[in-house]
Amino acid sequence: MSSTTSMQDVVIVGGGHNGLVAAAYLAQSGRSVTVLEKLGQLGGAAVSAQAFEGIDARLSRYSYLVSLLPSSVIRDLGLDIRLERRRYSSYTPLPGTDRGLLVDNGDAAATRRSFESLGADFDAWQAFYGRTGALARAVFPTLTEPLLRRSELRRLVDDTHWIDFIERPIGEVIERSFDDDLVRGVVLTDALIGTFAPAHDETLAANRCFLYHVIGGGTGDWDVPVGGMGAVTSALAGAARAAGATMITGAEVLTITPDGAVRYRHGDDEHLVNAGTVLSNVAPSVLSRLLGEPGEPVEGAQVKVNLLLRRLPRLRDASIYPAAAFGGTFHINEGYDQLDRAFRSAAGGDIPSPLPAEIYCHSLTDPSILSPELSASGAQTLTVFGLHTPHRLVTPGSNGSVRAALERAVIDSLDSVLAEPIESLLLRDAAGRPCIETKTTHDLEAALGLPGGNIFHAPLSWPFAEDSADLGTAAERWGVATAHERILLCGAGAQRGGGVSGLGGHNAAMAVLDGH
Questions:
Q1: pLDDT tens across 153-178, in order?
Q2: In this structure, are residues 181 and 336 in contact, taking their beta carbons and an 8 Å threshold?
Q3: Where in the chain is CATH 3.50.50.60?
Q4: Which residues of 439-466 are buried (b: 16+ CB within 10 A; e: fewer)?
Q5: Is the pTM of this model over 0.85?
Q6: What topology does CATH give the domain 3-44+67-82+225-295+457-513?
């Protein structure tokens, strides 16, 4: 074993999409930048993969949609990526019936008829999302600027919107705005993606999750990355390399010191690089471990299932084309009361039954992720995201059995709202195995280093500073500060991190350029 010592202006620990954003900005500014990635490829959770042996389909394996990535980042870095808008917002079957709610962004009259067929109030829906739209237009532009204080941002937002969405549990405004249980549930789901919380959550964790889900792009729309999520990180890596950044994969960081010394292993050799600034694109609790400091425990609360089907399944509601129902977010067993029962069940240590989940069909919007032969055959991908499955359900040594139980729960939940069993439609891989892949929180922790399988790295924070906060340094003003002056957060654990947004990377780069 040999060792080397070198110096860099910036060392970025973790080659996920945020680290690549920071690397591209800083290398473009003339800084010497090295990115250290433990895995054999860049991209972290934002990657595409051929998940099924011998099947030419590249799935967005972990992350799947894009909403919070600012167009300014795409322009600044010259990224050649396409994000396709989905015509349909959502379809939600009414459990136990052959009816459902279709939200068609391209046909307001059809959406109204769908609401009225269930006795639901379409005008209340329009009014509610008019309010979140106003919130999005006020808040989203601030995410790529230094943090506003609470009182400063509040002045940009209607006072009733601020109270309902920022200061009071999200369940209150949902219940006040809607009478229908199914509609209430569809709205609440945006507060629960990756977040284990009830509707009436006094910690307001559900509110913070909801806020980030409805402000993206100033509209709240969630788009499909053409070519899969790997196309986004490939473009980012290309921009960083073109600007002169060095990317080292298979580099396991062993220790970091507060003065910027990063020790890592690459192959059989250990290396020491002394950095003017270290940007941490790993979870804050992982950074604490690398610094030899105690870290806070975190917990994720979701299960991800990828499926490849020979065609879309038939619906119980014969009036809705499957391509319309699966063209947006397909909600299953996510009524308001169902979500509450699922939360209480999981809090008691049980897998919810039925399991609330939502489905995305990437290949309907972007068939390029399938080979021409697969696409011509009618094959489609489905990504299922199950809610209220906290990491605490996976006890030591139980991941295999819990994974199987969660997969079964997802299949049963799907079958409960479809006109035919989903397993009968699964393609088989080269070894004859069904094309279904399930990722628990434990799997995310093991594969990606996400503590507790938390997709946000840490509990989400508000996109503003409290009025009493110290904003004396650039790192504090940009929401990327740690207890150590030369170490900044640049990942999802930064103050405005979470999701495929690039915000953590952008804001850390801005702090460095501002002298942090």
A1: 999 999 999 999 999 999 999 999 99
A2: yes
A3: 3-44+67-82+225-295+457-513
A4: bbbbbbbeebbbbbbbbbbbbbbbbbbe
A5: yes
A6: FAD/NAD(P)-binding domain (3.50.50)
